[in-house]
């Protein structure tokens, strides 16, 4: 096998005929400015070709399931291995997918509990065991002498049908009777069973009297009923209590039997194991009273009842509220927080048997009189949610609903019998609720009998190794019960990385996209050790990364640039980190060497008197903390992964202020109050979610630039002569678009048993518009050519049109000069989408009293781009606004005016305030991990 991967003539996206040789079985870092072509080379060329070759080696039948991949634009690649991509896409949005199921640890736990778990009674909690026939006989013989009893065994319980064959086999036994729905049937009788009704059918042994010498008769009788029944023996003591015994597991006190313990019993995805109330989800979607009345400072007339806030005052619902208020003598103009509890109860849940009477305008039927009970807002919404076929209506009602813990399983997802099986005193749900590190300690110190150890040795080995892999990549604070959909991109990527480490594959090419995202510097060494383990056993790692620690650990670095977009796509430098530092053409080398740096500000802004204060934050792992965010400054919220940063900022600060300022419907995390909201007038969250989910959405449409560009085209002399309005230049409506492709620019061709193929539209050649529309030009370019421009080109082209120019300049300032105006939103990374949003907000006129929330805005950014971002954030703050960023990047933290450091650890050991103050003050707190690394950065 060759010791190098050789790439020749790579031209994918902005790559300029790149030739490259990289060593195999090494840790290789691809770096460079955002948009320089790193992902195009790593993912769209090398990984794509590795995948394509593997898929092409399969039969056409197999390819229809795996998909058909296009050959990337490259002349050839030598030395490729089978390739696996580990990117930042969240593992799964399915609520049934958890950390445990994704890593397969939960599958091993199910097997462990099924093989060595100890069952307990779901009712009384007593440990229960299965019994042999001899043990049953011994137990019966301990009853007082002369005790009369019958032995019964259930055959059918609560099932419909005639069961004729089953009854015939029972009749063949000499001294056995049949009891149908409680009545004994004689052997010779014709047994009539209604096939449409549910039945309880038991086989019954003739009456037995306990006395010395009847052991053989009891043994024969028990063997008979066990053979005909289902393993459960009921000893019906005449003039006494029933006793239940089982060859399976049964509680003799409560009469509850547990079926055979098997792995499926612990699965919340199958009926055999799932809680029947919530179907294994652990929660119910219910209308939330706090979302129905989100603001108690409003009156009913002002819209306090949110679902009907805009209803007509002559309509049915408003008149219903009015009638209930009149009954209690309460004014419609008074704040609802002063309303009697009984009044609010009747509005929310209905008047029951109490009737109300009122006139209302039925819109289409004129005025009518209603007399009867009022259904209640919550029952009304829940009924309509269940009955409607309209997605719009379901989404609208869902905005007033929240997930509530299932009242039966209390979020455990499993049925009581499954949760009654314990190991080391814990059931399987309690075990998955423990943080990874605690769970590993529990499993390693589990006390088992010699027989159990023999059975469970291999299972425990697999569980231990997988838990250790999660520790290696810095995820010790997660729990196995955590839903996969709630993980960040970085967490999701590291979980898949841990799974790959566990697979122990050799000779594989792994391509990773910034695995250090969301990881505190303290945990970075763990991640790098895990990556090194993969190369040590004979794999090649290509890591797209900006992290300095990763570069210093790498065997080989490929620096791509020199700029972004059309200015990138070239190999600037290759070699070890020392060789990159020595290369003065490399911007990466400039920042690694210190030739360029992000300077610590000479003076920091001093927080004023005003602050936004969260009281008693207790959501997730937050320990009832009070946190102040000074207004008018840049605040960085820091801490190790899992310390509670996102919970504090995104779940409480943002949602709480959004509810107060903009009547937001999302329920904030648990806290007692937020003070100081009067110091701001607007809150804006700038996250990394897509700016659109279809190719029709692009930066031009999202920022509003496209609307203004269409205005410009509509004002041209050619457009006026032809009578074209601005709508003519939209690719979303009939008129100016190409109707062959409906403005998509591409045509989908169905390949039946092969995947669909997308080809450029033959009519418009991918331009999206018809010929007549494209004949209209502004400054020599048609509308399609404008959409194909980069932001940087657009700045110069529209320099005389202030509205367009201002927005494009801001996009250029945040480092997006390389993206195209019409680039589909589906092709933008999370970091690019976040900066498009940031540019959109920056281009708006600021009130100076806005608070901006950003979650790791440096994701996907090179140090040079971080430099630009900091300049942009400074502009926001200089205008009087407040900026709060969740960050691990030390360059951003060191320029912040104020830092809130959470921890000290992740998960249950986090959620406390470790330190607050300026970066210098944080460095003086020994308990702060952030401070330890920040001190080194400030010293540099």
Automatic annotation (TrEMBL):
Compartments, record wording: Cytoplasm
Gene Ontology CC, one term: excinuclease repair complex
InterPro entries: AAA+_ATPase, ABC_transporter-like_ATP-bd, ABC_transporter-like_CS, ATP_grasp_subdomain_1, P-loop_NTPase, UvrA, UvrA_DNA-bd, UvrA_inter
GO biological process, any: nucleotide-excision repair
ABC transporter domain residues: 606-935
Residues engaged in binding ATP: 32-39, 639-646
Zn-finger region bounds: C4-type: 251-278, 738-764
GO molecular-function term, one example from the UniProt record: excinuclease ABC activity
Keywords, ordered alphabetically: ATP-binding, Cytoplasm, DNA damage, DNA excision, DNA repair, DNA-binding, Excision nuclease, Metal-binding, Nucleotide-binding, Repeat, SOS response, Zinc, Zinc-finger
CDD domains to which the protein is assigned, alphabetical: ABC_UvrA_I (cd03270), ABC_UvrA_II (cd03271)
Database matches in Pfam families: UvrA_DNA-bind (PF17755), UvrA_inter (PF17760)
Gene3D superfamilies tied to this protein: ABC transporter ATPase domain-like (1.10.8.280), ABC transporter ATPase like domain (1.20.1580.10), ATP-grasp fold, A domain (3.30.1490.20), P-loop containing nucleotide triphosphate hydrolases (3.40.50.300)
Task performed by this protein: The UvrABC repair system catalyzes the recognition and processing of DNA lesions. UvrA is an ATPase and a DNA-binding protein. A damage recognition complex composed of 2 UvrA and 2 UvrB subunits scans DNA for abnormalities. When the presence of a lesion has been verified by UvrB, the UvrA molecules dissociate.
Xref: NCBIfam families: PRK00349.1 (NF001503), uvra (TIGR00630)
Protein family: Belongs to the ABC transporter superfamily. UvrA family.
PANTHER family assigned: UVRABC SYSTEM PROTEIN A
Subunit structure: Forms a heterotetramer with UvrB during the search for lesions.
Name the UniProt record assigns to this protein: UvrABC system protein A
Organism classification: Bacteria, Bacillati, Bacillota, Tissierellia, Tissierellales
Gene: uvrA
